[in-house]
Amino acid sequence: MAQEIERKFLVRGDGWRDGITGSMAIRQGYLSISAKATVRIRIFDDARAVLTLKGPPEGISRAEFEYDVPLADGMAMLELARPNVVEKRRHLVPHGAHTWEVDVFEGAHAGLVVAEVELDDADEEVQLPDWAGKEVSHDDRYANATLSRQAGVPAVDPDAA
Questions:
Q1: Which of the residues are catalytic?
Q2: H/E/C letters for each residue in 12-41?
Q3: Phi then psi for 146, rounded to 5 degrees?
Q4: Those residues with Cβ within 8 angstroms of residue 79's Cβ, 6 or more apart along the chain or in another chain
Q5: Do 49 and 75 contact (CB within 8 A), yes or no?
Q6: pLDDT tens sequence across 22-54
């Protein structure tokens, strides 16, 4: 079974910008959100569409299944998802043994910057960069599915422990 294991942190400062090795625009819409599964369509740089099904979280892990779909179908699904759409620019930033994904949100969530690191094991040690602030892995307010249903940025100090 495909599985996603990730930790999520608020980002403080701009120190991460010097390490960017790539970036992409992402628009993602939520077609279904329930206790059993989340169904999302994601468009990368208006060039590629991916349909994702995610199971309920178990700590920092969850089942995840991703499938490429024709771009035209993905665009149509994104329209079906409105208004539950999140827009962001994802930057890839290597640090230690991992490549971090730093998401700079746009539109209704402008000002929010979150970094995620994908792991091979839930107990894996992670070298945290200086710009990683408060961990929000278990804070549902920072889940993209939650953000898609509300405007604005959750009020939390990224430097708080």
A1: 30
A2: CCCHHHHHCCEEEEEEEEEEEECCCCEEEE
A3: -70, -45
A4: none
A5: yes
A6: 999 999 999 998 888 999 999 999 999 999 999
